[in-house]
Design a protein that fits this description.
The complex is a heterodimer of chains A (211) and B (546).
Chain A lengths: L1 H22 L28 H22 L4 H4 L7 H24 L1 H16 L4 H22 L9 H16 L3 H25 L3
Helix pairs in contact in A: 1-2, 4-5, 5-6, 6-8
Chain B lengths: L1 H13 L2 H19 L5 H8 L2 H9 L4 H23 L9 H12 L3 H35 L3 H16 L6 H14 L3 E2 L6 E2 L5 H10 L10 H4 L8 H20 L13 H9 L5 H16 L5 H14 L13 H16 L1 H6 L6 H12 L8 H4 L1 H33 L3 H20 L2 H19 L5 H23 L5 H4 L14 H34 L1
Antiparallel strand pairs in B: 1-2
Helix pairs in contact in B: 1-20, 2-3, 2-5, 2-20, 3-5, 3-18, 4-5, 5-6, 5-7, 5-16, 5-18, 5-20, 6-7, 6-16, 7-13, 7-14, 7-16, 7-20, 8-15, 8-23, 8-25, 9-23, 12-21, 12-22, 14-15, 14-16, 15-16, 21-22
Classes of the chains: A mainly alpha (211), B mainly alpha (546).
Chain lengths: 211, 546
């Protein structure tokens, strides 16, 4: 853990130096600009330049990082006193399965749309990581995106990504026509029914899940 | 006496069956809108603004549409706490500070108490603010006008000073977190010069990179996303990333040590015990109610800084500051009282000066203009038939909101009864859907997840992340106010700390900025000095032992 703390502080210190340098950059179109000029406090009587505030913030980050490194070397911070590894086998597996699943989820959004990506991710997580029964995983992974679709796309008109064109034509255009043509009471009924299914899921999961 | 009788008349109109029904519907809608990440009061009010035409036609009451919108606003303010406590994802920026102690309370099996505390503190905060509003609206609006750029920057500095205490004992990591958050807020277009800064790659560098790949944009991964940095880092992207993704990854990792949700039981007697237990939270509630209202009435401040500052002040003045972040009910009461108080406070400059204090009040202002009202100093005299029923509805909406909120607690707690292996993917999903709903952009969603991974690693290494989240909220305003102040003083920093600084007739109350700045400097220096003293004493003791 101590080495990880020190290395992280070094990386963040280098990042701070990079940000200090970037803060001193001038406008692209000004070929006569001298680096750092916009970090001044009163440029041509028009107050601080655009780089003034970020430059000193990055400098503050750098000073903090040096302080963290100093503490790490002197073993005065809790991570530098710990003998635990920064990442053990469990943490690595967790990042691979959960983090990898999340990245896969994001990639799928552009292909199969937000709601189908949710269904796939929920199914993967519940069945393979949560070890819930197949039927329960299937029902949950269908009901949750449906409920979210009703709320975000239909009621709040906060439209989510629809994936590739064929997905939109095959699913969302007909679904949109159907639900937008429904009365508010019918939509409310849909919420209640799906809510009841979710309640059943919660009850069943309490009995079967790997909580 | 005039005010009392006018208020009574207003209350009488506000409790008419149609207005009461609108308040109940508005509060319920607001509660659910506020509870979902990515949707806040501004979405609820903006989306339902067209419904006010229907309401006006049906009721023929000039106050009814605004009563409906105000009820949504209140409901959303209450609702933000629900997802902060039950899921650990702030429903809105105003509820971020509620997550700090609300979530640990839920993990300890005290979610019911956290929800009751949030509801009752919100009610007290909202009611105190409405009382101030009723009695002192014209006077307070002139106080708000005394706050110019140096005063608001000094106030922001005071807020940062309270954040130093949020990170625990590791001062350098807390400082890093604050600087990093403030720096993230500078990414994008500079609002004063209009030039891009810290956008990772400018146009010239992009062209050079593209040329090395033969001009093929598809060959460079995420090439299109690079230019999105010019949009800046949105506040909710960082907040949801840290709490929705980073914190969840950390909890999953820690779950092998059985750090999971504790099942929460709920009954009428437990709710009553929670209400009675509010007497232990009187300090946080008082700080939140007063400070929240004060910050709320300031232009360009609003409920988010109000709740964050109240949390910081409540922790700093606590006898047991270490219990904050571990599930201290005062840490829930302070921000919740503050965000409701501030939301009422933000209506004050909107109604008396026509200056909206927050994005939601800007939409409400639009609503008022649509209904032919002219917000300004004469509104109270010219349109009393509108103003007093609206103020009356603030009291009624608050009461309705606390009752509805308490009634719905069993439903909210049902979420916590789900196994962690269902709750975790639901939280991930809500984080992603909520971020997209807030900004309509996949770049923000990717960035949010990346922040989440970064937050996980920093969390493992004991970096406090709450100060970074808070700094992002205030960063843009702080910089703008500082630069405008320095423009006024020709680059002289004395404008902030010197009470005798000559502003050449351009300034406001001379003492506000220096006094606030000096208090902030003392608060910033104090923990660092105390830390140094402790280290020296520790070193001396070790030497004596050795």
């Amino acid at each position: 853990m101590r080495r990880a703390e020190f290395v992280t502080a070094v990386v963040l210190a280098l990042f701070s130096v990079y940000l200090m340098w970037k803060s001193g950059e001038g406008p692209e179109w000004d070929t006569e600009y001298i680096h750092w000029a916009n970090t001044g406090v009163n440029i041509d009587n028009s107050g601080p330049g655009k780089g003034f505030w970020p430059f000193y913030l990055a400098l503050g980050m750098l000073v903090s990082c040096i302080w963290i490194m100093f503490n790490s070397i002197r073993r005065t911070s809790p991570p530098s006193q710990s003998d635990e590894p920064f990442m053990d086998g469990y943490a690595r597996r967790m990042l691979l399965t959960v983090g990898g699943g999340l990245i896969g989820f994001l990639i799928l959004i552009d292909i199969v749309s937000m709601y189908f990506a949710i269904a796939i991710f929920m199914f993967y997580y519940m069945l393979f990581l949560g070890r819930h029964p197949l039927m329960l995983s299937l029902v949950t992974s269908l009901v949750v995106p449906f409920w979210l679709y009703l709320f975000f796309d239909i009621v709040m008109t906060k439209v989510q990504p629809k994936g590739m064109r064929w997905m939109e034509d095959a699913f969302y255009n007909p679904a949109g026509e159907l639900f937008r043509g429904m009365s508010l009471v019918s939509i409310l009924l849909c919420f209640i029914v799906t809510g009841a299914i979710l309640a059943w899921v919660a009850r069943s999961a309490n009995r079967t899940g790997d909580a | 006496m005039d005010i009392v009788s006018a208020l009574m008349d207003g209350l009488w109109i506000a409790v008419q069956p149609h207005n009461l029904a609108l308040a109940v519907i508005g509060v319920i809608v607001g509660l659910f809108v506020g509870a979902l990440p990515g949707l806040g009061s501004v979405n609820g009010v903006a989306i339902l603004l067209p419904f006010t035409f229907v309401i006006n036609e049906a009721t023929s009451d000039p106050a009814a549409p605004m009563i409906f919108l105000a009820a949504i606003y209140y409901g959303a303010m209450y609702g933000g706490a629900i997802s902060s406590i039950t899921l650990g994802i702030p429903g809105a920026s105003t509820a971020v500070a509620t997550t700090f102690d609300g979530r640990p309370m839920a993990l300890k099996g005290e979610a019911d108490r956290a929800l009751v505390t949030a509801a009752v503190a919100s009610f007290i905060g909202g009611t105190v603010a409405t009382l101030f509003f009723t009695g002192f609206a014209p006077m307070l609006s002139s106080v708000a006008l005394d706050f110019g750029n140096p005063e608001i920057f000094a106030l922001m500095l005071l807020a940062f000073a309270t954040f130093i205490g949020l990170g625990g004992d590791d001062i350098p990591k807390t400082m890093f977190s604050i600087f990093f958050g403030l720096l993230l807020a500078t990414i994008g277009f500079d609002t004063i010069s209009g030039e891009p800064r810290l956008v990772f790659m400018n146009e010239r560098e992009q062209t050079a990179l593209l040329e090395t790949f033969g001009g093929n944009t598809d060959a460079v991964p995420f090439f299109d996303s690079v230019s999105w940095f010019s949009r800046g880092i949105q506040f909710l992207v960082l907040a949801i990333g840290v709490y929705g993704i980073g914190e969840m990854l950390w909890t999953i990792n820690a779950s092998r040590y059985k750090v999971t949700m504790t099942e929460t039981k709920i009954s009428f007697s437990r709710i009553m015990r929670g209400i009675v237990g509010m007497k232990d939270c009187w300090k946080g509630t008082t700080i939140g109610s007063l400070l929240g209202f004060f910050v709320g009435i300031l232009p360009a401040a609003g409920a988010t800084p109000g709740s964050l500052m109240s949390y910081g002040v409540s922790k700093m003045t606590s006898r047991n500051p270490r219990s904050y972040g571990e599930g201290n009910p005062d840490g829930v009461a302070a921000p919740e009282a503050a965000n409701n108080s501030a939301s009422t406070g933000a209506m004050l400059p909107m109604m008396t000066l026509g200056i909206p204090g927050s994005p939601t009040t800007a939409v409400l202002l639009a609503g008022m203009v649509i209904w032919g009202l002219e917000p300004g100093p004469r509104l109270f005299e010219d349109r009393p038939e509108f103003v007093w029923p609206l103020i009356g509805s603030f009291y009624v909406s608050n009461l309705v909101a606390v009752i509805v909120n308490l009634a719905f607690i069993p439903l909210f707690l049902a979420v916590l009864r789900m196994p962690f292996t269902i709750l975790a993917p639901v939280i991930f999903v809500l984080s992603i859907v909520g971020t997209y709903a807030a900004y309509d952009n996949m770049y923000d969603v990717w960035l949010m997840v990346l922040f989440g991974f970064g937050a996980y690693f920093l969390r493992v290494l004991d970096y406090p992340l709450a100060p970074a989240v808070l700094a992002v909220v205030l960063g843009a305003t702080a910089e703008e106010k500082m630069r405008q102040s320095l423009l006024l003083s020709d680059g002289n920093f004395a404008i902030f700390w010197n009470p005798f600084f000559d502003r050449d007739g351009k300034g406001q109350e001379w003492w506000i900025a220096p006094v606030t700045t000096w208090i902030a400097v003392i608060l910033i220096a104090l923990p660092i000095i105390l830390w140094g003293v402790r280290r020296m004493r520790g070193g001396a003791a070790a030497e004596a032992r050795g």
